[in-house]
Amino acid sequence: MTTTTDPVTRPARDVEAVRLVVASVRHRNRRRLVVTLAVGAALGLAFALIAISSGAASVSPDRVLATLFGQGDRTEQLVVFKLRLPRILAAVFVGAAFGLAGAVFQAVLRNPLASPDILGVSTGASLGAVWAILGLGLAGVVVSGFALAGALLVALIIWAAAWRQGLHGIRFVLVGVGLAYVCGSLIAWLLARAEVRQAQAALLWTVGSVSDVRGDALTMLIIGVVIGCLLTAVFAHGLPVLALGDDHAASLGVRTDVRRGILLLVAVLLIAIATSVAGPVAFVALIAPAIARRLVDDGSAALTASVMTGAVLTLGADVIGQFALPEFTAPVGIVTGLIGAPYMLWLLARTERKSRA
Amino acid sequence: MSGSQAVSGATTSRTEPDVSSAAASSGASVGQPRRRSARHIGSGRAIVVLAACALALVAIVAASLALGVRSIDPGVVWQAVIGPDPANADHNVVWQLRVPRTVIGLLAGVALGLAGTLIQGVTRNPIADPGLLGLNSGASLAVVLCIAVLGVSSPLGYIWFAFGGAAAAAAIVFSIGRGQPVRLALVGAAVTAFITPLIALVLIRDPETFNQYRFWAVGSLTGRGLDVAAVLWPFILVGAVVAFVLANRLNLIALGDDVANSLGQRVGTTRAIAGIALVLLCGTATALAGPIALVGLVVPHAARRLVGTDYRWIMPTALLLGPIMLLAADVIGRLIVPNAELEAGVVAAFLGAPVLIAIARSRTVAGL
Predict the structure, then answer these.
(1) Which residue in A27, A319, B183, B194 could disulfide with A341, CB within 3.0 to 4.6 Å?
(2) Among B235, B208, B213, which residue's Cα sits nearest to residue B223?
(3) Hey, what domains does chain B have and what are their CATH numbers?
(4) Which of A154, A172, A177, A200 to mutate to test the interface with B (most CBs of B within 10 A)?
(5) Which of B194, B217, B345 is the closest to A342 by Cβ?
(6) What is the DSSP letter of A46?
């Protein structure tokens, strides 16, 4: 008769054991995240140090520190505060925005390939900017406004066209690819029509560069990215559940469509703001979350880590673009594109093998 | 019963790999009436369709000769065609501007229509298109490099590089994205995305190359003379003959690789031959008219809708529909903006995008 107590105590013991396992896994994941973020921050600081001290007028690291604390002479102050610091901040915040937006896109659409580059949102922003530069002869912050409008308009059209009893990830991607072609052909037409010097300025914009982001545009970028991060943090609670699929999420009581809608909207706004100041920096939104997920490796959407990888990646790419070739500085978008596209191909080759197995 | 019949008919015609999920995801759309599978369309109807297409092509060629920024009386155009008078300015406009662009539109349209049909048939992929699969961007990069590095300046010189670039891109895209439609499109997008910054890198440093390249990149029927067409037409002829010869094999491939193999088909050989024809057709079209997207996508779909799923009828229909669409895009582009022109490539993208969206919204792709 001693066995009668077992059915009562054993489940209790099992629950306790499971709780311990979960706690230890959580602890390990948290430690891993902290280590990842710390290493990322260190890497970012190293890149920033290179970016701030090298260039046409080189400033030694100790002079950089002195200048940052207000001890530098006038040239050093000009170089550090007016030229190099804005560029670094722009790269960091643009990268953070793309990284976070990409992570949200990929989690919500459940597709590791969803990114604004493929979806035509970036092309829409480019079209807005190229039209403003070439069609209307504008320059400066107004161009960013047009880019913002272009990105949002394309996002809206994709949304409307892909919506059919819910949002299907692949439909979303295909409609986006189609719109990217329309925008691309219009950009080509505007470029062919314009005076060649102007057209080249517009072409440079479509590549994506952080070299000219300063003043009001930089302030707008930083405020926008901070707000976007906060909003995402607020609404991202259901994200791991969303990743299970609509049916699971709904059965767990998460109102999928509203959540997905808000998160995607915030992501599109982040992309639009970043693109409007820096141009479409290719592929950061695709690679940064993929790297982040690999580093954190806990099956989550890895939002925090994506912010970090995006920032470090963009800053690093900008440093490479500035100093890799001796007499030519490549805009950051070219460097990220040349790194990102092969990565995407590799990703595609790999997923194919997996799905076949 | 009729619903399930329609579903099975539609799926065998394209042989989507995942029939069950396609059927499952389409619970709501079963009620939609679907035209009975086109294999029931007899050859009588196909002949009528072909005749109508031929008439439409004649009409669009006439429109292409008669309409433009400079308004010329149709009677004068006719006189110019049958007996040109070098002293007459209107006759010169017709012969030096409109005849070349019409001929180039005809050739490039034929090439794009057939290339799209081949690529969709051989990959059993409803969203295959030389532009979507990155072949155009491969050709573009090769053209940029040949302008920038080798200093080639005539369209006649571009041709070989356009061929090479298209072939290289095709090799990469097909080896990585084999089989699955959406993956092929994504690999194409990735290849395009890799090549675009490379092109930009060259163009930003080299304004002169940019100045030449941008007129090519927009996709236009103007700017090439009949001399280019005279060199390139044999390639299109070879490509077209191969496409027609392969038509029956494509019918077997449409049943699936396994069925085709078991019926004695060498699927790999067919794919390789089709690949060569594809590069010939795409390379020529790109050399003639620049990178024009979405014509190759739309034409096969329209043809399938008109004459059914038999590639022996689809091929001739696509042969006629390709130039109809490209020349129509060109004519629309001449008329839509007052006193200016919208290039054919731009108008074609606008005509093609709604079709791509419609395909994306349809059940077959969403079920993948």
Answers:
(1) B194
(2) B213
(3) 103-366 (1.10.3470.10)
(4) A177
(5) B194
(6) H
